[in-house]
Amino acid sequence: METDFNTELKLKGFKAYEVDGNAAGHNYSRKDFYKISLTSGKYNFHYADRSFDTDGPLLFFGNPRIPYACEVIRPTVDGFACLFTEDFLKLNDRTASLLESPLFKIGGTPVFILNDTQTESIKAIFQKIIAEQDSEYAFKDELIRNYIQLIIHEALKMQPSENWSRQKNAAARISAVFFELLERQFPVESADRPLELRTAQDFARNLSVHINYLNSAVKETTGKSTTTHIGDRIIAEAKALLQHTDWNIAEIAYALGFEYPTYFNNFFKKKTGYVPKSVRATRL
């Protein structure tokens, strides 16, 4: 169902629906939108490097930057879900802080087990969202944003579930998150917007994990350091820019996060054994 909503999400930035019937799981991957869902099925969630088994009312917050998966144990489920883009909700600094709350961060807890009272309260908000979605009210988008923020605040007041379990493949999961985030920066499409994440520390900070934990997970999973993977990906992009654009060396250096062209030249030569100019000279 989420795939069918992609076009509408791109146009409107939002879609809400009722879950009723047989549910299908989805693979461990990064999604293209934020998701808040209220469901009552029995399934297993994998979120970043953690997993959670549930059987009952569950409130879940999904972040497009963090891969997650759902394994359905009992196919018959019911509930509600809403999908939205960051642009739809992020209209001011206050809203931005909500998207960066513990509900959506990799180190936070996006899963909440609800009691009957909490379930009915959240259900009522979802019903209002769906009703407004189909209404002709001129300011319905603003009202829907308020309802989404209300769900977020209600969740922040709840006691988060503590029944998370570390998996044997936790290193693989955090590595997958790292590679998802690394790849999101490419391809570089503008010489005026340099890479924001260039060091292992940058990625650890963005993922809200300790740098030693990130380095250990990536090394355990791949046999290479976080820094090596970052450097290799930057070199691959540098070669592509040298061969397929007319940007000068200084522009490419800046786009890849280097303050000075000489820093880029030294980095490139150290990694490849030759200077950037030689790559450009060989292109057809």
From TrEMBL:
Keywords: DNA-binding, Transcription, Transcription regulation. Residues 199-282 form the HTH araC/xylS-type domain. It comes from the Bacteria. PANTHER family: ARAC-FAMILY TRANSCRIPTIONAL REGULATOR, TRANSCRIPTIONAL REGULATORY PROTEIN. Gene3D superfamilies: Homeodomain-like. This is Helix-turn-helix domain-containing protein. GO terms for molecular function: DNA-binding transcription factor activity; sequence-specific DNA binding. InterPro entries: Homeodomain-like_sf, HTH_AraC.
